Amino acid sequence: MRRKIYISFIALMVLTLGFQSCVKDLVEEGIYVTTRYYGVIQDMNTLQPLAGMKVVSTNGDNVKETVFTDDDGSFSINMTVQQLNEGYFLSIQPDSLYQSQNIYLDRAALGVESYNIGVIKIKGPTVPELTTGNVTDITASSARLHGIIKANGNSAINECGFVYDVVQYPTIENHKVVSTINNGSIDAQIQLLPNTTYYVRAFARNSIGIGYGQQIAFRTLDGLPTIANTTVFNIKTTRATCSGSFTSDGGFAITARGICWSTSPDPTIDNLHVNLGTGLGDFETDLTNLQPNTTYYLRAYARNTSGIAYSEPCIFTTLSGYPTVVTTLVSDITSQSAIAGGNVTSDGEFPVLQRGVCFSTTPLPTTADSHTTDGAGTGSFVSHLSNLSPGTTYYYRAYATNVIGTTYGEQFIFVTQ
Fold first, then answer.
1. What is this structure's pTM?
2. How far is CA 253 from CA 125, 139, 303, 335, 414, in A?
3. Phi then psi for 237, rounded to 5 degrees?
4. Which strand (E) or helix (H) includes residue 84?
5. Are 327 and 396 in contact (CB under 8 A)?
6. For residue range 31-60, what is the model confidence (pLDDT) as tens digits?
């Protein structure tokens, strides 16, 4: 309360007795009409003291006093009661790299000899701030990189672009591509290796240093060809037909293509294979010299500089190779004979060497039982069954034999007279 009385008294003395006489009387009472304000100016980011920073006591365009910070960032400037009453404040006015800042003074300092403002942190230049964008147009050998420069750090950018490598958090010591700035955005096309994981960061350099965006990871395509619609049809005993399509070269020319097959899953070119030339397109080819009644696995393949690609496997089984024969119903049955026969409808791709009818008094007769021999080849034939026993039940069926083996037609029954 006493201090407030003295401050009011100051104003009164200035008006009536003159400023110099007032100052003398107040100092004797321990009250000061001029207060020394002091403090330290630091860089907001590094917390380092800033020398040579201009500190001005000002009121609009009216500048009262100007001082500069020492090497340790400290400054000292005087402010009178009159200035404070007139609305003076301190203005930090650094060079263009730092942002100006106004300090509105605490009136609690009125009447004291000195007052510590403390540490004043001002925003100065920093490395640029960036965002690394998503990677687009990824192929086996290239990709397009994107980024945004959010802030230049209060300092002109003299280089920007992207850094990338197969190791994480690449820097300009790794692979670098330089870009130009287009409305704050940057992008670049880079050449890469197939089937490889890369890490990329946008970067920009100013007078302070290098700033990096966040890391983005991506993987290039494998670069292998693509094969579609591989099928096997027209399957026979020792041959079949295969068709398909080489639809993409993966970005690298197909230098060899074909089909491979084996009796084991997932055949490769180390197994049986046939080459079908180069390039893209459809194909159709015959497989020969297959084994009868055998399951095969087949895949088309294509080779480029990235390696060998295989299609999904096709699984097929060749025909057995046995003949097909139909039994003819018996006729002209007597006590000792009957007429039967058959029809060889397929030779199984191997010539029928023998055909006829086998018969027995027990079911499922074979050529080890009584039988006739009625020529060779395909087609219909007639068999004369003789030396039968009267009043006896017989089982009979036609047969046909080639190099693969013997097959039988349907079994029928008759009874002699």
1. 0.62
2. 52, 14, 8, 80, 71
3. -70, -45
4. helix 81-85
5. yes
6. 889 999 999 999 888 899 999 999 999 998
